Amino acid sequence: MVNPTSSRDASTPAGVIQRDTIVAIATAIVPEQGSVGIVRLSGAEAVAIARQLFHPPKPQPWESHRILYGQVRHPKTGQVVDEALLMLMRSPRSFTREDVVEFHCHGGMMAVQQVLQRCLDAGARLAQPGEFSLRAFLNGRIDLTQAESIADLVGARSPQAAQSALAGLQGKLAQPIRQLRATCVEILAEIEARIDFEDDLPPLDEPTVKAQIAEVAAAVERFLATADQGELLRSGLKVAIVGRPNVGKSSLLNAWSRSDRAIVTDLPGTTRDVVESQLVVGGIPVQVLDTAGIRDARDQVEQLGVARSRQAAQSADVVLFTIDAAAGWTADDEAIYRPVCDRPHILILNKVDLASADAVALPTLPPHIPIVRTAAAHQQGIEALEHAILTVVQTRRLQASNLEIAINQRQAAALTRANLALQQVQATIADRLPLDFWTIDLRSAIQALGEITGEEVTESMLELIFSRFCIGK
What we know:
Blueprint (H helix, E strand, L loop, with lengths): L5 E2 L10 E2 L2 E4 L10 E7 L3 H8 E2 L10 E8 L6 E10 L10 E7 L3 H12 L3 E2 L4 H8 L5 H11 L4 H11 L4 H23 L9 H19 L2 H9 L1 E6 L6 H9 L17 E7 L2 E7 L9 H16 L2 E7 L6 H7 L7 E6 L20 E3 L8 H11 L16 H22 L4 H19 L5 H8 L7
Parallel strand pairs: 3-9, 10-12, 10-13, 13-14, 14-15
Antiparallel strand pairs: 1-2, 3-4, 4-8, 5-6, 6-7, 7-8, 11-12
Helix pairs in contact: 4-5, 6-7, 6-14, 7-13, 13-14
């Protein structure tokens, strides 16, 4: 991302950097759908550009945080582009801490595209991905964890993921991280003071310093413990239903999703391609893949479906290996099972309502492999299936009350570096090395913790983070 040019004049509020004016569509635009589309301007010329384009039916005061009604017109021809509402938010009381103007237009494609083009014609520049959030960060409106939480909130695929993102947006990650960093800075200052003014100060309170470092390290490890769960909340799981034809894979998907997502017939080979459904299990987004029945197919289309089924099984986080309980374990089941037996999987005994009272004969399986009995046609066994999936991925049901903050991969990497540095400090103290050695790894821990909130940040890091945002954020 190219850094916008900046300047500051006497009328600029303290701490706000003035940059060129950017514009972007801030809402998802779908042809012939959506009642409202928003075009957002931010920068020193936002209000001037809006005045060129927006014409109220009668004079109205252009006051901050006031909504105006009027028409957007072509600045040269006077042709009406759209009937819209205008929202004005003057610096610094805006998301970017710059002057921000939003045109609330009619939804769909044409109205917002034309308003966007008129803003560009009037001198605005098309915003780059994440540039509004980048400006909010650079102007001190939000820190780096809050910026990332905005992206997480937009992309949340479950209520728990949204709650975790909101907690981050409210500063519930940044505040304790800043406190941990501040503690490290205070310890570093105490140590460096003893190095520089050894004769003028009392000896360092070594037990207290050791206790403080241990507390910071323990807190860092608690945050690190949420990394895997945070990844599940954000990325979710891919689960593939695999088995031979007619064991009830599609019926299982329909029962699980409570919809007729997949076609179900008594004919083998009905499913010719992978059918997807998006679910939420214990707060975790789950992409369920109903695959074609695996067998030696002569039909070329079915052969392609079988090949995709095998690929889906190999790429899935969890495989639901499904057999017909009434038919029992067959040679065909054995052949299909062998390639997936080394992957995380659950054995599904479907159609238990049609099986005999005797237990289904199964081969000897490792004791850790969960076995779930279902009758998909009667919606039976779904709760046990979900519990087994959560067990396989070694996580409990994620609730906002007991997992308020879940760190992302970038934050986990920084915390890992901080943790290693703090462990090295503790080892240095235990080895009775001079104070100069203590400061080396303390500085590394401070640097790593500062990267999380953005107090220690590089241009390349900002480019990487904000380039993943959508254009209007």
